[in-house]
Amino acid sequence: MYASNSTEPAVKNHTTRLPSLTGLRFFAALCVFLLHSLMLADPLKVTVPMSFFADSRIAEPLNTFVGKGGYIGVSFFFVLSGFVLTWSTRPGASSGAFLRRRLVKIFPNHLVMWVLAMALFAGAFTPVSTWLPNLFLTHAYFPQADRFTSVNPPSWTLCCELLFYVLFPLLIRPVRKAAENRLWLWAGVSVAGMLAVELVTKYVIPDSPRSTMLPIAVPQQWFGYIFPPMRLFEFVLGMFLARIVAAGRWPRAIGLAPATLLALAGYVWTIYVPSPYDFTLSMVIPISVLICAAATADIDGRRTVLNSRPMVWLGNISFGFYICQGVLLFHGRLWLVGDGTYSTPVAFALWIGFLALTLLFGAALYHGVEEPMMRRFSRSRKDRRLVAGGRPVPADRRENPTPEPAEQISAR
Question: Cβ contacts of residue 313 below 8 Å, gap of 6+?
Answer without folding.
Answer: none
